[in-house]
Specification:
With 372 residues, the chain is α+β, with helices and mostly antiparallel strands. The chain is 35% helix and 24% strand. Strand 3, helix 4 and strand 4 form a beta-alpha-beta unit. The mean pLDDT is 97.
Length: 372
């Protein structure tokens, strides 16, 4: 049986105080968080629904396609598992039957509208016309924001492994090779570092560093180029997310200046991440930092929570007033891009501790622009 490392007691408390009679997890984040089973097909086969019904009273039920049923029965802690035959049975009808069994045909049921297509939702509301179906994604987000010690350990291990993989890739960069070859090597290094699979591999060269998330190209490395990365892997379903910038050869005074000023912003942003501080205040500090060092900044956030979803709550953004709490885990990213010319990206994993923020990703020396 797989280990559940999420905080199910917190989920139980939140559901009890929510006014919902039940919540239904539907996303590739919340289903494994509750059940302890990661189903990769949730991310790739949209109509192969996996659903966990978590009632306010009583035991949960896991609805899953028979393709995955054997694995789920072996790995999940949930004993009540219902298997439907994809393309023959309706997973929504299974959900309807479970809600009726639990006496919730006219209940107040939370669901995840971001992960239920309109046709599935229409089928659900037609079958249970007396029930109220209301979004419950904020409830799940609130529970997942504060990580358990096991989650913190996993995210730390993932970030450190990814940083080592990135350093191994940067250490072998040679003029004349292509972005495509660098990306392939980075992916292999992330796997060798312990990831189950790469999650995203953005590694750009020269003028392509001015873009955020482009596909790899045959752009070749030239002496004097910037190399910029934003990359991560999946580790037991949890993301890593690291960003670094380097130069092939010697950095010019102008590039050193840009990088040093970005690092000033990066350090001040992290220093502001004290327990009890609103996420929006951290964003304000970042925006003010960019203004003081005279680097343009028009992006909507300065960092984000990270976990089973790449942009978990809280967001370090103007509209998120969530108070930072110990055991929240963030990817703090400080960057600037001039499209088609060049760009810089610094991204670290930061854990909020009782005494303040802790930067986990310290293997690569980011004090100055790295020269390869």
């Amino acid at each position: 049986m797989a280990e559940v490392i999420g905080n199910l007691e917190a989920l139980k408390r939140e559901v009890a105080g929510s006014g919902f009679d039940a919540v239904v997890a539907m996303s590739p984040e919340n289903v494994p968080y509750i059940s302890g089973v990661l189903l990769w097909t949730q991310r790739s086969i949209r109509d192969r629904l996996a659903l966990v019904v978590w009632p306010r009273e009583g035991d949960p039920t896991f609805i899953v396609a028979t393709n995955e049923e054997g694995y789920v029965r072996e790995k999940s802690w949930i004993p009540d598992i219902r298997g439907y035959i994809q393309h023959e049975d309706s997973p929504i009808q299974f959900l309807v039957d479970v809600l009726r069994e639990k006496g919730l045909a006219a209940g107040r049921v939370g669901f995840e509208p971001s992960f239920l297509t309109a046709d599935f939702f229409a089928e659900l509301t037609k079958a249970l016309p007396e029930a109220q179906f209301l979004p419950c994604e904020p409830l799940f987000q609130k529970v997942r924001m504060v990580k358990t010690p096991a989650e913190v350990e996993l995210l730390t291990r993932a970030a450190v492994a990814t940083e080592h993989a990135l350093m191994a890739t940067y250490a072998t960069v040679k003029p004349g090779e292509t972005e495509r070859s660098l990306v392939a090597r980075l992916g292999a290094n992330i796997l060798q570092a312990g990831a189950d699979t790469p999650a995203f591999l953005y590694l750009t060269v020269g003028p392509n560093t001015g873009y955020a998330h482009p596909d790899p190209t045959d752009q070749t490395v030239v002496f004097g180029d910037l190399i910029k990365s934003d990359c991560g892997g999946f580790f037991s379903g949890y993301y890593s997310d690291i960003g670094r910038t380097a130069v092939v050869g010697k950095a010019s005074p102008e590039r050193r200046s840009v990088y040093q000023r970005l690092m000033e912003v990066h350090r001040s942003t992290i220093a502001a991440m004290q327990p009890g501080t609103p996420a929006s205040e951290v964003y304000r500090v970042a925006v003010e930092g960019y203004r003081q060092v005279e680097i343009p900044f028009g992006l909507p956030f300065a960092g984000h929570g990270v976990g089973l979803y790449i942009h978990e709550m809280p967001m370090l953004s103007a509209g998120d007033d969530t108070l930072l709490h110990p055991n929240m885990v963030f990817a703090v990213e400080t960057r600037v891009r001039w499209p088609g010319k060049e760009g810089y990206h610094i991204e670290d994993l930061v854990i909020i501790r009782d005494q303040g923020p802790e930067v986990v990703t310290t293997f690569m020396d980011t004090a100055e622009l790295m020269e390869l």
